[in-house]
Automatic annotation (TrEMBL):
InterPro entries: Prot-tyrosine_phosphatase-like (IPR029021), Tyr/Ser_Pase_IphP-type (IPR026893)
Region ranges (Disordered): 264-283
Family: Belongs to the protein-tyrosine phosphatase family.
Entry's Gene Ontology molecular function annotations: phosphoprotein phosphatase activity
Gene3D superfamilies reported in the protein's UniProt record: Protein tyrosine phosphatase superfamily
Lineage: Bacteria, Bacillati, Actinomycetota, Actinomycetes, Pseudonocardiales
Pfam families noted in UniProt: Y_phosphatase3
The name this protein goes by in its record: Tyrosine specific protein phosphatases domain-containing protein
């Protein structure tokens, strides 16, 4: 039995490692097994991390967590031990008031995801797209704390970028619910600190396709589609082209004609030994 699923319509293994960890479901437009997503990456064991690398050829984890989250919960030690590059691209500064309700509605969740995209701290998305474009020559893992909000909007944008149908994007978002619900008690410290109940968090962990279906029309609202939306929040058009080429199923690899056009200083960041748990983020 494999530890992690292969990219099929039903991508759930019998034993789920980590938290909300899975290969994004195979769909038209996306290269199978090239994009993975996860919640809390500190949950991986060394064996699981090594198997992840062996099964997918994972090259890098792009971590959207804030400095405070990394200091509180820790770096991805198991992945680092397996030779995976840790690329920190904190995604923050967006409003959170829209989901202050203990049990937000699908409409409120969609507004929240849209705010992560359009109202994040200036420069966040430009740095993120630059990092993804450079890292995605090899399979990549995108992660945050739960793997559903920040990771959810990032993965939705990436899937839209390579032409994955909306219904498949919504279905992939919804795929996380079962594992999050099964592991809700892992986050007890968080709901107690925020004054929520366990039932509140069970509600919050339900990643319904309705939420993503409400969001997706906004990703297509620009005449240039999601590319236009991403350029509007600071992404470089050439880097978007490189990224789309890496992720596309059967597509060319534009990076071969633009080698060196995007650079990440991995020597001072993700490759170094983690004594200080906060290596430099992408400039």
């Amino acid at each position: 039995m494999t530890l992690l699923p292969s990219t099929t319509e039903d991508s759930r293994p019998h034993v789920r490692p980590g938290v909300n960890l899975r290969a994004v479901r195979s769909s038209a437009g996306l290269a199978p097994g090239h994009l993975l997503r996860s919640g809390d990456i500190t949950a991986l064991t060394p064996y699981e991390a090594e198997h992840l690398v062996a099964q997918y050829g994972l090259g890098a984890v792009v971590d959207l967590r804030s400095d405070a989250e990394v200091l509180r919960y820790g770096p991805p030690h198991a992945l680092l031990g397996a030779g995976v590059r840790w690329i920190r691209c904190p995604l923050g500064g967006y409003p959170r008031d829209v989901i202050q309700a203990h049990r937000p509605t699908a409409a409120q969740r969609a507004d929240y995801l849209w705010g992560i995209l359009t109202r994040a701290e200036p420069g966040c998305w430009a740095r993120l797209i630059r990092a993804l474009a450079a890292a995605a020559r090899d399979p990549i893992l995108v992660t945050c704390h739960f793997g559903k909000d920040r990771t959810g909007i990032v993965v939705a944008c990436l899937l839209a970028l390579v032409g994955v149908p909306d219904e498949d994007i919504a279905a992939d978002y919804a795929d996380g619910a079962a594992d999050l619900l099964a592991k809700v008690d892992r986050f007890a410290e968080k709901w107690l600190r925020k004054g929520h109940s366990r039932q509140d968090y069970l509600s919050r962990m339900r990643t319904s396709p309705e939420t993503m279906s409400r969001l997706l029309p906004r990703l297509h609202s620009d005449p240039a589609g999601v590319r236009g939306v991403l350029v509007g929040v600071g992404a470089d058009p050439e880097e978007l082209g490189l990224l789309a080429g890496h992720l596309s199923a059967g597509g060319g690899d534009p990076a071969r004609d633009h080698a060196g056009s995007v650079v990440i200083d991995t020597d001072s960041g993700p490759h170094r030994p983690i004594a200080d748990p906060l290596p430099p983020t992408i400039p």
